[in-house]
Amino acid sequence: MSDGERRDMGSKLSFDRGRPGRTAVTLPDCDVPLAEMPSPSLLRDDLPLPEMSQPEIVRYFTNLTCLNYSVDTGFYPLGSCTMKYNPKLHEDLARLSGFAQVHPLQPVETVQGALALMHELQGLLAEITGMHAVSLAPAAGAHGELTSILTVRAYLEHRGESRHKVLVPDSAHGTNLATVSTAGFQCLPIASDARGNTDLAALAEALDEDVTALMLTLPNTLGLFDQNIVQIAQMLHEKGAQLYCDGANLNALLAQVKIGDLGFDVVQMNLHKTFSTPHGGGGPGAGPVAVKAHLAPFLPSPVVAQVADGGYVFEEPKSSIGKVGAFHGNFGIMVRAYAYVRSLGAAGLREVSESAVLNANYLLACLRQAYDLPYERRCLHEVVFSGSRQRAKGVHTSDIAKRLIDYGFHPPTVYFPLIVDEALMMEPTETESKETLDAFCEAMLAIAREAEEEPELLRSAPHDASLRRLDEAGAARHPVLRWQREDQA
Amino acid sequence: MSDGERRDMGSKLSFDRGRPGRTAVTLPDCDVPLAEMPSPSLLRDDLPLPEMSQPEIVRYFTNLTCLNYSVDTGFYPLGSCTMKYNPKLHEDLARLSGFAQVHPLQPVETVQGALALMHELQGLLAEITGMHAVSLAPAAGAHGELTSILTVRAYLEHRGESRHKVLVPDSAHGTNLATVSTAGFQCLPIASDARGNTDLAALAEALDEDVTALMLTLPNTLGLFDQNIVQIAQMLHEKGAQLYCDGANLNALLAQVKIGDLGFDVVQMNLHKTFSTPHGGGGPGAGPVAVKAHLAPFLPSPVVAQVADGGYVFEEPKSSIGKVGAFHGNFGIMVRAYAYVRSLGAAGLREVSESAVLNANYLLACLRQAYDLPYERRCLHEVVFSGSRQRAKGVHTSDIAKRLIDYGFHPPTVYFPLIVDEALMMEPTETESKETLDAFCEAMLAIAREAEEEPELLRSAPHDASLRRLDEAGAARHPVLRWQREDQA
Amino acid sequence: YVPNTDADRRAMLERIGVASVDALFDDIPAYCRNPRLTLPPPLSEMELTRELSRIAARNRSIAETPCFLGAGAYRHFIPSVVDYVIRQGAFATAYTPYQPEISQGTLQSIFEFQSLVCELTGMDVANAGMYDGASALAEACLMAIRITGRERLALLSTVNPSYQRVVRTYAEGHALPVDVMTPDGPALSEKHACLVVQQPNFFGYLEDVEELERRAHAAGALYIVVPEPMSLGMFRPPGEYGADIVVAEGQPLGVPLSFGGPYVGLFATRREHIRQMPGRLVGQTKDVDGRTGYVLTLQTREQHIRRERATSNICTNEQLCALAATVYLCALGKQGLRRVAELCYHKAHYAADRIAALSGYSLPLAGTFFQEFVVRCPRPPREVNAALLERGIIGGLDVSEQIGGGMLVCVTEMNSREEIDWLVDALREIGA
Amino acid sequence: YVPNTDADRRAMLERIGVASVDALFDDIPAYCRNPRLTLPPPLSEMELTRELSRIAARNRSIAETPCFLGAGAYRHFIPSVVDYVIRQGAFATAYTPYQPEISQGTLQSIFEFQSLVCELTGMDVANAGMYDGASALAEACLMAIRITGRERLALLSTVNPSYQRVVRTYAEGHALPVDVMTPDGPALSEKHACLVVQQPNFFGYLEDVEELERRAHAAGALYIVVPEPMSLGMFRPPGEYGADIVVAEGQPLGVPLSFGGPYVGLFATRREHIRQMPGRLVGQTKDVDGRTGYVLTLQTREQHIRRERATSNICTNEQLCALAATVYLCALGKQGLRRVAELCYHKAHYAADRIAALSGYSLPLAGTFFQEFVVRCPRPPREVNAALLERGIIGGLDVSEQIGGGMLVCVTEMNSREEIDWLVDALREIGA
Ligand SMILES: Cc1ncc(COP(=O)(O)O)c(C=O)c1O
Ligand SMILES: Cc1ncc(COP(=O)(O)O)c(C=O)c1O
Hints:
The complex is a heterotetramer, with two copies of chain A (about 500 residues) and two copies of chain C (about 425 residues).
Chain A: H1 3-8, H2 54-65, H3 88-94, H4 97-100, H5 112-129, E1 133-135, H6 141-158, E2 165-169, H7 174-182, E3 186-190, H8 200-206, E4 211-217, H9 229-238, E5 242-247, E6 266-269, E7 289-291, E8 303-306, E9 312-315, H10 331-367, E10 383-386, H11 388-391, H12 397-406, E11 413-414, E12 423-426, H13 434-453, H14 455-459, H15 472-477
Parallel strand pairs in A: 2-3, 2-4, 4-5, 5-6
Antiparallel strand pairs in A: 1-7, 6-7, 8-9, 10-12, 11-12
Helix pairs in contact in A: 3-10, 5-10, 6-7, 10-13
Chain C: H1 6-16, H2 45-57, H3 80-87, H4 89-92, H5 104-121, E1 125-126, H6 133-148, E2 152-156, H7 161-173, E3 178-181, E4 192-199, H8 209-218, E5 222-227, E6 245-249, E7 265-269, E8 282-286, E9 292-296, H9 303-306, H10 319-356, E10 372-376, H11 381-390, E11 397-398, E12 406-410, H12 417-431
Parallel strand pairs in C: 2-3, 2-4, 4-5, 5-6
Antiparallel strand pairs in C: 1-7, 6-7, 8-9, 10-12, 11-12
């Protein structure tokens, strides 16, 4: 593909490719007598799908791959996303016929391998988090959050308590707040203090008997360990509220501390972050929930239990909140995460958290001369800078991000967490080498200089990409959300 | 990868990446007692291999993919190469554990599937070529050529004849001539006539009792069917010589004519061309040889035979020339070719040759206004133009080729066949659509105009590629053929 | 997978200015630092391959076993191109496409997916996908609540029971009553935000979707239809019979069964409801040089912008499965999808006819079915299935709780005539 | 896989100016046009998958069977990255890289391969690969003929018999006599172009390569060494003991067994012989902008330029297998390759010790071996192997023709202790 073609990819969709009458797949003849067809009134006239040959399809999608940045092509320091390397072996393992070609409703005696794997994974995740029971049902982090909050709700209702509020720090990820609403609760923000911890005074003020839970991300989205955690747990529990951990950032804590030991009652994990399953451009993931014993009876259905003869069965927890998905969760993702834990063991997990944290602190050390650090502390797995110094030169964080593209890097997460002005949130992960971090820091330092000397270079970046500064405002104002035939458009 | 990075890939090899102490693969502990190590004098001190992590390796090779043109990314009209689409399904099938994880020396009763497949493939190829026996041993076209010539030699020697010459038309592929030498024969060129056929007078003159064979490519490398074929066969046979078909261009003839019916005694096929197995950037391929009955006893060992109970065995032909490879040929390629023939059947094969020929003639029709056509005939699977008209403007065929890169196409084969001045040899194959051909012709016509109006644009092309006009002369003058440590370089 | 060597580590610690990595974790309370973790020892790639192959071998793969299960997850032939594309690291190891300049591969393929879902369902707009069909339905119900401002949900009793349960779980949070109604006379009131209809229904048969549409709209409720996507290869799309929201399980479109997930929920609606839609949307736009490209759009509906007022909490969805569906639909295309649907139809009818002719077996339901149908067995379906399994066949789903003696049998293009005949013979033996 | 529709075809025929496609084939003599082709009917992708799976299932995959075969093809663990890379269409569906501007992916990886082969063998230069180890050896012999101008070949009797046969086939054309000599006293003369030594030899044992080097060079012959590449993970490379040409079978380096092919021949030599080398070579160079890149070079040795005076007729070689070896060597790297070699060494010795301790069995050969060794069996190896197979084990290669009662047993890192013990127990039973 020439550069020109690369730039023009967007103008030709599958519907514009191919020709009437083409197809990419041959199908067998019908080997049974034909049945009478249903009444024509039940049938569709037109099936307006693309008509492409197999070579065209392969070419189209192969060429699209060269337009995507990915962990497999470069450093992806997107904060709060844990873009670590995804082992290729695990992709092969998840595709083993005994995993990929198994129907979810097969008789239980024909799926003992799958159930054993799920049971073991439940146990491994419980051990890692220091919790007592695990549900593998949720399909992603936010799904796990919802499951957790509904589980807590069911627990409290079972105790005859009907509470209406959930506390969420102002640094929280958007899913936390949205989850609270989706679960039918009222959301109460809690301020952070000057050290980036939960403000205990604010917490004390907000905390009453109507509070169901506090959703705390640990380390929080500033990449910091909440130094008040012990008090927070105590305060919550004194009011009969539950302490929930958004475990999306667990990569920092693997084998360093068990979430359960810190007083948390429930935690959701993102297997597609911490446990190295690939992000897929936005999923699939899996968001298992681990809970203390008192919450276990309320977990969603099913969980896997081992029975007397050593075999495995699906069970519905006694007072389950019910089902959160059609079947048993994202099994294919579980296989990968299971493989990951088995490949590392306890020492390997510890090496992960150590290296992840070391890498983030190295970025902090190398870049602090050029970028403002809103909280003067060492970080854990990620570091959040502020682009405020650059903004003074008329350069925005988004300009820095776009300029990084010219240097061949994926930009960090920007403008999040909201409590940091012009936030630049960088999570290097443990699978990046020092050389890569050095190259990235060099680019960031060069950009800081450019911001001083040639700010226009940043404001018009990227210069070296197939497309530059797409019109997002226009896209939202006049949404074009699908291909349309010329005559309909 | 930014454009800049794309351009700099070449300067960093695996040895320059990574760091001492890294490795990409974990290995198991030794589960047996350690043996005494051999004397240190037998052991090597240093094993100077790269030391990379798995993420680095994946990134390195993934980024290299975006520097390669391939059938999967675009039109590849490289003449004499039959760059057709390679079905992805066949890649999966060749990797089935029962094919890929089988040792070549396993007891014959444990490999009946493999032998059955080889036996059937022998039969299918014999049927397609109209021959009587097939050897699957050769690993590529040239290997098949050598095998064929040695087979012919053995046959003649068996008849007590010792002949020394092999005739090869002046349009022949280089491998034909090199094969003749490698097989220990003397090579005699035969001129082509004004219609692009073998010149019968020249042939008659060269033909004597010392001639072993004529190696004829059919269709020849001009993309033309030799109209004298019947006479040629007769002339050869009258002198007791054999008629050999270089079947690299069989794509044009599938199900249109059987090579054997035309009087050929032996033919080699390129499974990696006609039978859609991927080229792999230069192999692996397979070059089976099909022969008439009189040559069968001389084929290399082994061939597969079916025995009384329906089972299959390896056999050595009675007067075999011996072995041409360590085992039984490129089995993995046979699987793909077998799948190809089974997926198409006779009608499908005919559709292949029809479409391949139609596509080539379409290129001929669309481009003849702008490029010189050295032979005023319709072509078969490929068309050869001459860039002589453009050369008059100071533009060479190689400039046209480089300029095509800017237009996003792989150039045709250039400067071959040698008998065409400034040759441009285009083989579209059957898997390309009319739209693609139209786009290619548009580019070729635009280039013809540019050659008139802006020849410099061509001479300095490509403009739109990561690298431009590499110094090939310098590379040959001071060959740097391997990475070297700084201190050794 | 950790590349840094000890030397690297030392250099980095020095730059950071701490003596050991441990010091970086000082904020963790001492009482619980460095816990004892009891995990199995690490396995090398080779050992891991063996171990997981061993586990996988304890499952019965339906690649080797004739299987007649459907009920929400379907076995179809998946062309090799599908897995080839989704395995590509450039797709598989990218994040949600927040930086459009370097994410056009993902963005364009999401736009393709949205377009294909629209064409398939006959709806105006579709999003980038939800977790699965069931959670998509739950979100559709919440969306109906938002749009109508009403507070009751109505589902037909013939909706997949699993889906009903997921809707209840989601409804619980908002204390929304869920009314289950029979297809022939749903008693809707002006309190109902929506009527949910599955087509074909859980038992494989077509509902009278036009009559139900009239009922729903007459009550001012939104009409939510849950079609089986392969059936849309031949049957009328919900957009043609007045659906307001369409959700579906996308698995049949090129996603492997994988013991239940990951799958992908399809979600489509009418243009006027776009801003109430949950999930991610990609829009077409231009860059500064006028080139066509794609961006995430209407993000003000989403959690990362709108936070507690978002239309859903969904963030990571099932993009790679959506990509699989995209490639699958492109590969089968207009002709292929219809052909697969027809193969399923004919084979299912062949099986149904032959089973109905067996003494002791009957088809208790009347009407038109697609690829699934209920068989009334002469013995409890549980026993019949056990006897089938002994013969190496995985039978249909036991639905005897809903339909006396009922087994829900599914037949797709993957079931050869030989397999079907084998099932029929086995049923005859078992029923004798 | 033919995209053009009838409409396309009609438009094209019109443009060409013929009435039918048939007319394009008019040059074919009428008597043999449109022959009857008796081929099996076409299969759809689904049917083809079934059919080939059925055939594959008739082979015993050694993924499921303990196997102790080596003798030129070895089972090693192949990390998933290897197949991931070589499956990429950009590598797999490219041609020989004749246009460097758009082939740097292939060219750079060939340059890597050449470099890795040099490091592994200790030689100066290596080419892009030959068909396999055996044909590479034959080409090495022809090269020795060209370099020395002599006309006899000398091979040790301990060279793989298959390789000997391939050398003979190639030698036949030039009527070159091939002399086979014993390792302890090869009677070389000034007529011999080369001495060929396999290290470890066919029976798994190390030859006295230094003494043999002296002999070869004393006779003015080139010294051709055929090492087993995995053994180079721990043993001295031929470059260190005076080899002039090194050829080897590259299969053990990340290429699947595939019933014997495709594999890749490694070919390395000393700098002064470059221009006599067969095969493709990639060189490093600069482009007009001074950027580093790679090109095919020294093509004047090759058939497409030099034609009948080329150093070989090879054209298409085994590039994708060479790429597999490249990725494999990068992945294992310095530490990993040594570790695999040592695992093979220790496991083979464990097996040899245990077998030698069995009554009736012995090790007839003395010396140092790597991963293979010969066992003298108390019954004909053919019978022993049949009895092993009954017990689900694939035994070693029957070499009783060369060594009385001999079975050539190979043990690699893939054979677990459990498997080895199982073999030992079975041999005990069979020998009793
Ligand atoms: C801190 C935090 N919590 C929750 C989530 C939501 O996880 P998911 O995207 O899997 O729903 C994210 C995702 O980015 C996150 O960063
Ligand atoms: C006409 C012709 N003959 C022979 C060959 C040699 O085939 P291979 O490259 O497989 O050795 C080729 C390859 O390009 C060819 O085009």
